[in-house]
Amino acid sequence: MNNNLKAYESTSTLGLSQVDLILKVYDGAIAAFTEAAELYRKNDLNAGYEKMEKAKKFVTHLYTTLDPKNGGEIAERLGKIYAFVLSQTDIAQATKDLKIIDDNISVLKNVREGWQGLKEQQKNGAENKAEAGNNGAKSEFVTSA
Fold first, then answer.
1. Domain boundaries, the chain
2. Does this model's pTM top 0.85?
3. Which of 24, 73, 96, 143 has CA 20 to 30 A from 48's CA?
């Protein structure tokens, strides 16, 4: 059963763009923080702590996969945001302060919106290229091959 789950999870990421994969990581972090807050509200501290650890893994992944060489100032700023979220997570785990968790969720949702906007720009750019390639005729089928 566990192998089937791993195969499904692997298949669910095949063919996704880099931006789509990044969005999935944000979704995972946001969901884990949301679940942790709910567990802390129910006074299930151990399970809440585990969800916080899971959220930290997602944010750490975002942080460690930054490419400062190609990302420049944006990568630097994202690195600072991720470092802030990680440090706030440590404080939230120690204090069980739900406001800190909610703030982390807000920060991540805000940055995720930026990535979603980038995805839309890329999509619109691809559509415009397809239209230009067809002398202005709208294309129903676009391929990268």
1. 16-133
2. no
3. 24
| Contact present, 112 and 26 (Cβ < 8 Å) | yes
Compute the distance between CA of residue 137 and CA of residue 54 in angstroms, rounded to an integer: 48
Q: Is the pLDDT of residue 141 over 50?
A: no
The rounded distance, in Å, linking the Cα atoms of 44 and 124 is: 45
User: Which H/E stretch holds residue 28?
Assistant: helix 18-41
Alpha-carbon span 77 to 59, nearest angstrom: 14
Q: Which CATH class is domain 16-133?
A: mainly alpha
Residue 43 backbone class (left: φ over 0; alpha: ψ -120 to 50; beta: rest)? left
- Tens-digit pLDDT profile for residues 83-134: 999 999 999 999 999 999 999 999 999 999 999 999 999 888 766 766 666 5
